[in-house]
Design goal:
By secondary structure, this protein is of the alpha/beta class. The protein has 8 helices and 20 strands.
Length: 399
C-alpha cells in the first residue's frame, strides 16, 4: 500500500513539474523515482541467499534432558539487509529455558522471533535451550522471514517449509520401581533350548497329522495333492515376547483420554521392552493407535537385533493417542503371526469384558499371557489363571 502511495507521489510530482514548467519539481520527481526504483530492485533480491539453520545438540533424548538449539542466519550475497524479521514455529510443550516464545492462535505452537540487520556475507547466531519434559515427536518450523529495502517502502515475506524434528523417548524405569518383580516378571521362563516354530517363516509342507491346528492347513497344496497338507515352520530357540499396548484409558472412546495414565502405560511398555531385550527375548510391540501422520496401528515385529530397543522407543515416541481399533482386535489380528511359544504381555488401563474374553481364550489355548494394568484386579474371578500385575498411583509418581 505504501509503495503505491510513493508511486502516485512520483507521478504526481512529474506531472506537476510538466504543467508548471518547474525545474526544481522535475529534479525532485526524478530523484524520488530513482529512489523508488532502487528500493523496488533492492526488495526484489533482499531475501535471496538468506540461509536459516537450526542446529540441535542432540535429536533423540529422554524426558528430563535439556537440548541446546543454535539458530543462525547467514546473508550469502553482496546486498546487505537493513532489517530482517524471523518467526520460527516451536512446540510449546517443550518450554524454553533460554528465550521466550510469542503466543499464536494455536496453543501448541509458539513463535521464536528475531529482528536483525545483516551486512554482506554476515552470519548471526543465537543459542536457546529447551527442556524435554514430555514424550513425543516434535516438529520445529516452518519459518517465516520478512525483509525490505533500506527506505522502508517495499516489503518481502517468504514462508519456508523446512522443518527439524526432535524425538523425546518415553520414560524407562526399572521394573522394581513399578512394583514388578525384577526376576521372571513374565512367569517361569521356558527352557531356552526348547525349539519353537516361527509362523512368519514357512520352510515347507507335510501331510496333515492329528492335532495340527486349522490355521496350519495349506489350502493350495491340499487342492493340488487331493489330501490335507499343513505348513512346516522354521524352528527358533529364541524365546519371543509380544507387548500389546492399549492406548484407550476408558471403556468408551467418547469418555476422552486420561493423558497421565496413558503416558504411564507407554512408559511401562517401554520399560518392559527394555527388560525383555536385556533378558534375551526377541521382543515386539503392538498398539491400537497409529504413529505420527500414520493411518495404521503401530506394529513392531519381534526381534532381538541390537537396534530393536531404539526402534521400539522411537515408535512409542511417535505414537498418537487416539485408538483406531480396540486392543482385542489388534491381539486377535496378530496372534496367527506369533510363534506358539511366544509370551504375550497386555498393558492396559481399562479391562473390558471383550478383553477378558480374549485373555480367557488365550489361557485355554495354552498361551503364556501376562496382564499389566492400573486398576485393582484382585476381585476379578474371570482373570483367574492369568498372571496379572497392578501398578498403583504412588508407583507411577515415584517412577
Amino acid at each position: 500500500m505504501y509503495s503505491k502511495r510513493w508511486l502516485y507521489f512520483v507521478v504526481a510530482v512529474l506531472l506537476l513539474s510538466a504543467i508548471m514548467r518547474e525545474g526544481s519539481l522535475l529534479i525532485i520527481g526524478v530523484l524520488a523515482g530513482m529512489a523508488l526504483g532502487t528500493a523496488w530492485l533492492w526488495n526484489r533480491y533482499v531475501l535471496a541467499g538468506v540461509q536459516y539453520e537450526r542446529v540441535f545438540s542432540q535429536t533423540r533424548v529422554f524426558p528430563g534432558e535439556k537440548v541446546d538449539i543454535s539458530t543462525r542466519v547467514t546473508n550469502r550475497k553482496l546486498l546487505p539487509l537493513p532489517w530482517l524479521q524471523m518467526a520460527d514455529e516451536f512446540p510449546t510443550r517443550l518450554p524454553l529455558t533460554k528465550g521466550k516464545l510469542a503466543v499464536t492462535s494455536e496453543s501448541a505452537i509458539g513463535l521464536l522471533s528475531h529482528l536483525v540487520a545483516l551486512r554482506w556475507y554476515e552470519r548471526v547466531s543465537w543459542l536457546h535451550q529447551i527442556d524435554a519434559v514430555a514424550r513425543g515427536y516434535y516438529a520445529f518450523g516452518p519459518l517465516t522471514i520478512t525483509s525490505g529495502d533500506m527506505f522502508g517502502i517495499f516489503t518481502s515475506r517468504e514462508e519456508r517449509q523446512e522443518q527439524s524434528f526432535l524425538i523425546v523417548y518415553p520414560r524407562v524405569v526399572p521394573l522394581e520401581r513399578l512394583g514388578l518383580p525384577s526376576k521372571q516378571p513374565f512367569g517361569e521362563m521356558r527352557s531356552p533350548q526348547r525349539i519353537f516354530e516361527d509362523p512368519s517363516r514357512t520352510m515347507g509342507i507335510r501331510d496333515y497329522q492329528r492335532g495340527d491346528g486349522f490355521k496350519r492347513i495349506h489350502w493350495k497344496a491340499t487342492a493340488r495333492r487331493q489330501s490335507l497338507q499343513v505348513r512346516v515352520y522354521e524352528p527358533t530357540a529364541t524365546p519371543q515376547l509380544a507387548i500389546f499396548l492399549n492406548t484407550s484409558t476408558f471403556e468408551h472412546f467418547w469418555d476422552g483420554i486420561d493423558t497421565h495414565t496413558l503416558e504411564a502405560a507407554i512408559s511401562v511398555a517401554a520399560s518392559l521392552a527394555q527388560y525383555a531385550l536385556d533378558a534375551g527375548y526377541a521382543t515386539g510391540l503392538f498398539a491400537n493407535a497409529p504413529l505420527f501422520h500414520g493411518d495404521q496401528t503401530m506394529r513392531v515385529r519381534p526381534s532381538s537385533s541390537p537396534q530393536q530397543l531404539t526402534v521400539i522407543l522411537e515408535s512409542l515416541a511417535k505414537l498418537n493417542t487416539f485408538a483406531l481399533l480396540t486392543i482385542e482386535e489388534v491381539i486377535e489380528a496378530e496372534m496367527p503371526r506369533l510363534p506358539w511359544g511366544a509370551t504375550l504381555v497386555v498393558v492396559t488401563a481399562v479391562i473390558t469384558p471383550a478383553l477378558v474374553s480374549v485373555l480367557a481364550r488365550l489361557r485355554e489355548a495354552g498361551r503364556q499371557t501376562v496382564l499389566v494394568t492400573f486398576g485393582d484386579t484382585s476381585a476379578r474371578d474371570d482373570l483367574q489363571g492369568i498372571l496379572a500385575y497392578t501398578i498403583r498411583g504412588e508407583q507411577l509418581l515415584s517412577a
